[in-house]
Recover the amino acids of this structure.
């Protein structure tokens, strides 16, 4: 299901000529990629634990238990970072879309290219 949403968002970024639709599709694309990364980091064990040492002693048994039952925090940290970066990119693109509309009076990318003479 996530790959279908990913493909639809990619279609919106590549095919749609409207800049606002491209920005919305890019936002959906980033959110879908983040969701896929979170699901890749999920562990299917009975009772997953947070990666926190329960005791101050670092015996072999405690370390083996932690390695076998704890959730890997790396995907979650990467997703939090990606969310912040995605938000900044979307804000920048929204600002650029406003400026394009002020200058050219349209949000259609094809019309802007024709007006620029490219």
């Amino acid at each position: 299901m996530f790959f279908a949403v990913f493909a639809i968002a990619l279609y919106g970024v590549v095919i749609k000529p409207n800049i606002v639709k491209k920005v919305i599709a890019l936002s959906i694309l980033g959110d879908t990629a983040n969701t896929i990364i979170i699901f890749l980091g999920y562990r299917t064990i009975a009772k997953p634990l947070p990666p926190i040492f329960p005791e101050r002693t670092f015996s072999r048994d405690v370390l083996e238990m932690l390695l076998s039952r704890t959730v890997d925090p790396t995907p979650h940290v990467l997703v939090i970072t990606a969310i912040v970066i995605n938000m900044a990119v979307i804000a920048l693109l929204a600002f650029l879309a406003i400026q394009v509309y002020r200058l050219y009076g349209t949000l259609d990318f094809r019309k802007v290219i024709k007006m620029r003479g490219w």
Summary: The chain has a mean pLDDT of 88. The chain has one domain: 2-116. The two ends are 39 Å apart (CA to CA).
